[in-house]
Amino acid sequence: MNYLGIDYGEHRVGIAFADSELRWAFPRVTIDQKKENLFERLTEIQQKEKIDCFVVGMPYHPDGRTNGKNVVVEAFIVELKNHFPEIPVYTQDESYTSVQALERTSYLSKKKKKNAKGIIDCEAASIILQNFLDNNV
């Protein structure tokens, strides 16, 4: 089974990949929604990698509130399900994944991080996907 991890943002979307055989998530790419159509790119990736399952990072509030970014992500999930009705979509708590991604990329110079903001997004997607694999597969 092939999994696609998604760290959704209104401007950039981090993408990670894993398969059930290796059970290890790898950062793949960051899609800049200002430059590319998100669903066209997801369709290309889904067809090329034969994706069986989507895992989307959900920004849960510690107090259970349902406002802010999680509303935006829920709207994205509805759209994702409409575009890929045959592929199941799961959510995974994305709490602190950006902080972890920053730590993992601490070896990069500040200039390189600034010029490649997408590195953090696809790294966060791999953390989200790895957490899902560790807890569910």
Please describe the structure with a list of short key phrases separated by commas or semicolons.
single chain; 137 residues; alpha/beta; Nucleotidyltransferase, domain 5; five-stranded mixed beta sheet; 5 strands
Just name the CATH architecture: 2-Layer Sandwich
Q: Determine the mean pLDDT.
A: 85
Strand order across the largest sheet = 3-2-1-4-5
Specify Rg, calculated over alpha carbons: 14 Å
Task: Classify the secondary structure makeup into a structural class.
Answer: alpha/beta
CATH homologous superfamily grouping? YqgF/RNase H-like domain
Which regions are unreliable across 5 or more consecutive residues at pLDDT < 50? none
Q: What is the CATH fold-level name? A: Nucleotidyltransferase, domain 5
**Count the strands?**
5
- Helix count, DSSP H or I runs of 4 or more residues: 5
Helix content: 40-55%
Strand content: 15-25%
Domains, number? 1
| Shape summary | globular
Reported for the largest beta sheet, the result is: 5 strands, mixed
CATH class: Alpha Beta
List the secondary-structure elements in sequence, H or E.
Answer: EEEHEHEHHH
| Amino-to-carboxy terminus distance | 10 Å
Structure description:
With 137 residues, the chain is of the alpha/beta class. It has a single domain, classed as 2-Layer Sandwich (Nucleotidyltransferase, domain 5). 44% of the residues lie in helices and 23% in strands. The protein has helices spanning 38-49, 69-83, 97-104, 110-115, 118-136, and strands at residues 2-7, 12-19, 26-32, 53-58, 89-93. Strand 2 (12-19) and strand 3 form a beta hairpin. Helix 3 packs across helix 5. The radius of gyration is 14 Å and the shape is globular. The chain starts with a strand and ends with a helix. The mean pLDDT is 85.
